[in-house]
Amino acid sequence: MFAKDRDLLIIEPGLFREVVWNGQRLLSGVGGLSGTTLTLLTGSFVDSGITAGHVALINSVPMEVVSVQSATVATVSIMRSDPASNAVPGKDLAAGGVEVFTFEPQVGIVHRQILSMIGIDVDDPDGLGEAAVTNPGAMVVLEALGALHLIYASAGAPGRGGEGFLDRAKLYQQRFSMQRGTVVALIDLDGDGIAETRRHPNSFVLTRG
To answer: CATH 2.40.350: does it fit domain 24-102?
Structure first.
């Protein structure tokens, strides 16, 4: 996938406060924070499938997972605009609640849609795969906006008491549509690592069977 949970949080700071229940819980434990080092006292990063790009709620404060060193040790950071920049330490904590939720299921749905829009069928074993996109970073915001639309549309479903989230869902739907008109995917057709064509996700690509 192009987008990670950290990318969703950067666009929507209230995501893990307002609709975290709409995500999938990966970890619920206790840990201590020293600078940028998060050490679990209970639970396991490895067993929970937590990797760089996930978001850890440390006493309900969201921090980006930069890397995982072992089952109990990870480097975390206050949210950064650039994932390549240095990790920023949070407030030291001897022991507190550590939870990790993910919205990867929603991101995955949008990911398949975007690939289809640029003519990539992930179910075709003989066709192009995701690796054919040579500029995946350009697709991050588009994918994140689409996922946020799905998340808030679901949160605002009638009967759940979250009708107010529907306006947010419509906003992200509009932003997703606008972003589609500006993004260009560079596609490597022959596997040599060099893009031979440009495709816009605002139109479907027709290929011969």
So the answer is: no
Q: DSSP 3-state helix, strand, coil percentages of the chain (rounded to 5)? A: 30, 25, 45
**186 beta partners:** 198
Strand stretches in the chain, DSSP E: 24-34, 37-40, 55-58, 61-68, 73-77, 93-102, 185-187, 197-199
Run means of pLDDT, 10 residues per run, the chain, 209 residues = 97 94 96 98 97 97 97 97 92 96 97 94 87 95 97 81 83 94 94 92 52
Give the domain ranges of the chain.
24-102, 105-199
What predicted TM-score, i.e. pTM, was given to this entire model? 0.90
Residue 33 buriedness (CB in 10 A; 0-12 / 13-18 / 19+)? buried
Instruction: Report the alpha-carbon distance of residue 169 to residue 172 in Å, rounded.
Output: 5
Residue whose C-alpha is closest to residue 55's, from 15, 108, 107 = 15
DSSP state of 130: G
